[in-house]
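can u do me a favor
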């Protein structure tokens, strides 16, 4: 069946014409899907009943089902567990800030990158999400909260650049002036470092922020915690990130999960400062979230502050990410993993 919610306005116009409909029907349909956030074709009351019935017969209308909503008593963060049409589970996080609401979305069901400290990688990759399934995470959260989303972080379960085509389509749709029209500058995409895809993304000349999950400053240490490091060396990553920054004119970000006794030494701080200086990156320190299946623990706040201060002495632009939703399993993969353990493990297909 046709995945109608993943279509651009141009594709939808062509599709309406093949159905013998006037082009303006495409704009009406697009508005129902992407602005009014309709839950079904039957909701689209200004479309002829005959057209709605035909669309229901011929098209797949992506709609996520909310399985769980957990609201933090500490900071108002909301964690959502959604089920897809095939029964797979994904999760998203709504984070209210003074400067606007942010949503962190997943790009895959599962992940094949295998980072040892991450709950998202446990169980491997099941499948990629469609552009519509990525959009729907934002749409369902907007509908549930009644709040406008102004910032998007593609940093949930999955490696976004491993789902490259659907990611690009998602970005085009969510920033389209005919839809929610969120600024590209308010979108951050996180990658563990697929060098060829970073270079491909640069040629699109988007104004999004690209964040590299670095997590170690030597190839040897990075290979110990991130299997992708066996494929790409840090030198290659730095060249690709510098290329991205030069082509797009956008400052890049280095995500660095602080793991006690693993990557929080004086040598690590010096190495990170040296790497960040190349592309003029911003460093985002993230005390690692404890995961039941791993032994990795975060340093205490005092030690994290010491590490941050060392970077600042080297002239590095650095922040420590606020830990939001700690009381509701808000970290990547935690809620999905908990539910999967209760229901029986999901076997990866890829």
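np, heres the sequence
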């Amino acid at each position: 069946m046709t995945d109608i919610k993943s279509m651009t306005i141009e594709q939808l116009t062509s599709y309406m014409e093949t159905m013998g409909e006037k082009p303006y029907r495409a704009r009406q349909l697009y508005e129902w899907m992407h602005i009014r956030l309709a839950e079904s074709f039957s909701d689209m009351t200004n479309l002829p009943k005959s057209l709605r019935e035909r669309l229901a017969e011929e098209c797949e209308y992506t709609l996520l089902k909310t399985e769980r909503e957990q609201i933090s008593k500490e900071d108002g963060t909301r964690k959502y567990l959604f089920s897809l049409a095939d029964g797979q589970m994904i999760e998203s996080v709504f984070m209210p800030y003074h400067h606007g609401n942010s949503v962190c979305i997943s790009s895959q069901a599962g992940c094949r990158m295998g980072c040892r400290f991450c709950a998202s990688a446990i169980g491997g990759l099941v499948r990629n999400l469609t552009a519509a399934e990525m959009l729907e995470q934002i749409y369902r959260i907007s509908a549930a909260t009644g709040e406008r989303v102004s910032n998007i972080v593609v940093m949930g379960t999955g490696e976004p650049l491993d789902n490259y085509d659907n990611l690009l389509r998602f970005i085009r749709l969510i920033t389209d002036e005919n839809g929610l029209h969120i600024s590209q500058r308010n979108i951050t995409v996180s990658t563990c470092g697929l060098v060829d895809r970073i270079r491909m993304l640069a040629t699109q000349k988007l104004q999004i922020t690209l964040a590299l999950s670095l997590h170690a400053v030597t190839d040897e240490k990075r290979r110990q915690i991130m299997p992708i490091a066996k494929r790409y060396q840090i030198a290659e990553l730095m060249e690709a990130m510098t290329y991205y920054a030069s082509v797009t004119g956008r400052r890049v970000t280095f995500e660095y999960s602080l793991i006690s006794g693993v990557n929080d030494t004086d040598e690590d701080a010096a190495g990170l400062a040296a790497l960040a200086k190349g592309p003029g990156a911003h460093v985002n320190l993230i005390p690692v979230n404890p995961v039941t299946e791993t032994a990795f623990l975060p340093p205490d706040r005092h030690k994290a502050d010491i590490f941050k201060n060392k970077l600042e002495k080297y002239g590095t632009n650095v922040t420590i990410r606020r830990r939001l939703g700690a009381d509701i399993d808000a970290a990547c993969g935690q809620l999905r993993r908990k539910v999967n353990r209760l229901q029986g493990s999901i076997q990866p297909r890829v």
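The first helix runs from residue 9 to 18. hope that helps!!
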